[in-house]
C-alpha cells in the first residue's frame, strides 16, 4: 500500500520509500557539492598565488634601482626590444596584481553554474575556470600594451619623473578631472553594472566549453577595462613605482565592484577626483 506525506510517496508497510534511489541521489548531491567546493578552493588558491606573486614582483620593482625602474629613467629614443619587454612585463604584473582580485566573484559564480551544467564531468570547473581567467587577463594584457605605448610617449615628451609620475600639476590635475568626469558617464555606468552583476551577464551570454569560457572571460575583461580605464591611467599621477598608490586604486576598484547600497561609490569618487584636480589647479595659481 502506498500513501503520501505531503508530496513524498511513502510505502505504509516499510515507511522507507524508494530508499535505495534516495540514498544514491543524496550521495551524488554530496559528491557534487564536495567536488564544487574542492574546485572552488583550487581556483581560489591559483588566483591568490598569481596575485601574490604579482604584488611581490611589484614590491621588488618599487624598491630596487635595477631593472624596470632604473631602465625607465633613461628616456628611450626608440622602441628597443628590451625596453618593450621590460616595461610590458611591468604593466602586465601591475594589472594582474590590481585587477585579478576583483574578478574573484565572477569566477566563483561561473564555477557554480558550469558545474551544475556538467555534473558528470570531473574537474571541468577547474579547466573552464582557468580559461575564463585567461580570457579576462588577456583583455588586461591588451590594455598593458596601450599603457606601455603611452608611457613611452610621455617619456619622449619629458613629462614623467624618475618614478614615472607627471612632473607638472597641470597634467596631474587634468588626469584627475578627466577620470572624475568619466565616473558620471554612461559608459562607466554600463560597464560597472556588468562587473557588479556577473549573474545577469552569464544568464544572457553563456557559452559552453573551454572556448566559450575564454570568450566570456574576454568579454568580462573588456567591460572591466571600460570601467577602470581612466582609473588605471591615474598611475601616472601617483607614479608607476608607487606601491601605496597601487594599493589605494586596487581598494577603490574592489569597493566599486563589490559594495552595494544607496551610497554611490562611483559618483562620490568622481566628485573627489574632480575636486582634487581643481584644487591642484587653483593651488598652482596662488
From TrEMBL:
Pfam families noted in UniProt: PpoB2 (PF09948)
Residues that span the membrane, as ranges: 41-59, 79-100, 121-146, 222-245, 265-283
Superkingdom to which the source organism belongs: Bacteria
Alphabetical keyword list: Membrane, Transmembrane, Transmembrane helix
InterPro entries reported in the protein's UniProt record: PpoB2-like
Coiled coil: none
Name of the protein in its database record: Metal-binding protein
Amino acid at each position: 500500500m502506498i500513501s503520501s506525506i505531503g508530496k513524498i510517496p511513502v510505502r505504509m508497510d516499510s515507511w522507507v520509500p524508494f530508499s535505495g534511489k534516495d540514498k544514491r541521489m543524496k550521495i551524488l548531491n554530496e559528491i557534487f557539492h564536495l567536488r564544487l567546493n574542492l574546485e572552488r578552493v583550487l581556483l581560489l588558491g591559483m588566483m591568490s598565488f598569481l596575485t601574490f606573486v604579482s604584488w611581490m614582483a611589484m614590491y621588488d620593482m618599487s624598491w630596487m634601482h635595477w631593472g624596470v625602474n632604473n631602465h625607465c629613467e633613461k628616456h628611450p629614443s626608440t622602441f628597443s626590444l628590451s625596453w618593450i619587454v621590460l616595461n610590458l612585463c611591468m604593466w602586465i604584473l601591475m594589472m594582474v596584481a590590481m585587477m585579478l582580485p576583483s574578478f574573484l566573484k565572477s569566477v566563483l559564480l561561473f564555477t557554480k553554474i558550469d558545474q551544475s551544467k556538467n555534473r558528470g564531468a570531473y574537474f571541468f570547473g577547474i579547466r573552464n575556470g582557468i580559461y575564463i581567467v585567461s580570457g579576462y587577463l588577456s583583455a588586461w594584457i591588451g590594455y598593458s600594451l596601450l599603457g606601455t605605448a603611452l608611457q613611452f610617449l610621455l617619456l619622449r615628451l619629458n613629462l614623467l619623473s624618475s618614478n614615472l609620475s607627471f612632473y607638472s600639476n597641470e597634467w596631474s590635475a587634468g588626469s584627475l578631472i578627466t577620470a572624475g568626469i568619466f565616473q558620471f558617464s554612461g559608459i562607466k555606468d554600463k560597464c560597472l553594472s556588468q562587473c557588479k552583476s556577473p549573474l545577469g551577464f552569464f544568464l544572457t551570454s553563456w557559452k559552453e566549453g573551454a572556448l566559450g569560457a575564454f570568450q566570456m572571460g574576454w568579454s568580462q575583461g573588456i567591460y572591466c577595462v571600460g570601467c577602470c580605464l581612466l582609473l588605471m591611467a591615474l598611475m601616472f599621477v601617483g607614479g608607476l613605482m608607487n606601491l601605496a598608490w597601487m594599493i589605494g586604486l586596487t581598494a577603490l576598484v574592489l569597493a566599486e565592484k563589490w559594495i552595494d547600497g544607496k551610497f554611490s561609490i562611483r559618483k562620490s569618487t568622481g566628485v573627489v577626483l574632480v575636486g582634487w584636480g581643481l584644487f591642484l589647479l587653483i593651488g598652482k595659481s596662488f
